[in-house]
Amino acid sequence: MNQQYPSALLEKAVGEFSKLPGIGRKTAMRLVLHLLRQDQPTVEAFGNSIITLKREVKYCKVCHNISDTEICQICANPQRDASLVCVVENIRDVMAVEATQQYKGLYHVLGGVISPMDGVGPSDLQIDSLVHRVGEGGVREVVLALSTTMEGDTTNFYIYRKLEKMDVKLSVIARGISVGDELEYADEVTLGRSIVNRTPFTGTV
Amino acid sequence: MNQQYPSALLEKAVGEFSKLPGIGRKTAMRLVLHLLRQDQPTVEAFGNSIITLKREVKYCKVCHNISDTEICQICANPQRDASLVCVVENIRDVMAVEATQQYKGLYHVLGGVISPMDGVGPSDLQIDSLVHRVGEGGVREVVLALSTTMEGDTTNFYIYRKLEKMDVKLSVIARGISVGDELEYADEVTLGRSIVNRTPFTGTV
Description:
Number of domains of chain A: 2
CATH class of the largest domain in chain A: Alpha Beta
Distance between the termini of chain A: 51 Å
Oligomer: homodimer
Radius of gyration of chain A: 22 Å
Shape of chain A: globular
CATH architecture of the largest domain in chain A: 3-Layer(aba) Sandwich
Structural class of chain A: alpha/beta
Helix content of chain A: 40-55%
Order of helices and strands of chain A: HHHEEHEHEHEHEH
C-alpha cells in the first residue's frame, strides 16, 4: 500500500519509529498516533527520556556496564566480591544474572561475542580490558556467562587462551536441563552436558 | 523477573517506551538499547520527531484530519470534489481510502465511533461539525465509511438521524465479499450484504 501521509511531520515521526527493530510502518503509525493522543508533557517526557539517556549515560570504567556514574553501582558496592568477575555479552545479561540473586561478584560486559559473519572481532569487544583487569590482580575467578552458541563458545575459547597463563581460575556457567524440563525431552547434547555444573574451564565445555 | 536497572536514566527511558501500546518492558529495553547504539544525532532526530509533531501538528479546520497547515492538502486541493464527503473514524482510515486511489472527494474525520462501553458519546466526536458542514451547503453526498461493527453501525444510524432532514444524499461503503475470497467460505451475513454495493443509506445497511 503506497501511503500518502497527510502531514510531513507525521511522516517523519513514523519514519523514525519504523527504523526501530521489529517495528514496521503500520506499527510505527499506531505508536505515533497513540503518542499524539497523549498530552504535551507526556510526549515531551517520552522524547526527552531517550535523548537524555543518550546524552548523559556513562559506561562504568571498570566493567563497561551502563551507569549514571563513572563507576557503576555494582562495582562501587563494597558488599560485592571483587575477586569474582562474570563475563557477559551485554547489559541485559547483567540484569538477567542480577535478577537471579545468586551472584555476588562483579561483571565484565564484553559488548557482544566474536562473530566473523557479523564482522565482530576480538578488538571490537572489551576483551583487552578484561585481560588488563585480571593482570592488575585481585581477581580470583572469571566466570564465563556467554550465549551457548558457536560464537559464544569461540569467545570463551579466545578468552581462555588470553588468560590461561595468568593466575586466575576460569569457569563457565553450567549448561544443562532447564528447570522444569523433563529429561526425556532434552536434546542429547544438553543432557550430556547437564552432568557437569560450573566445571573448571579447560578450553572446551 | 524483578529487574534492577543499572541506570536510572535507562530505567526512565524503558519506562516511557513500555507505556506504548503492545510494548512490554522486555521489548522496550530492546528498543532503548538499540537506540543507545546509534549515534547522538540519530537519537536526537528520533526523540525530536515526536516532540515536534506533537508541538506543531495541526488539525484541518474543515475535515479534522492531521495537517501541517490550517486547511489540509486534501481540502485545499481544487481538483477534489468538494460536494462529496467521506466520513471516517481516524486519519489511518483517510490514508487507507487514499491508497485505493478510487476516491476523489473530501473527508470528515470523526475521531472514533460511538461506543458507550468505552465512554465515547456523540459529543466526543466531530458529528456536530459534520452537521454544520452539511448545513452550510455545497455537500451533495455523505459517504459513511466507518467500521462494520456494532459501534460503527450505531454511529452510522446516529448520523443518519442528524442528516435525514437535510438536502444531502447519504451512502455507506459496500459490505461484501473481500477481493480474492471464495463465496463458499464467506459468512452468510457478509454474503447477504454483498448483493448491494454502495446502496442509498436508509437507516439500516
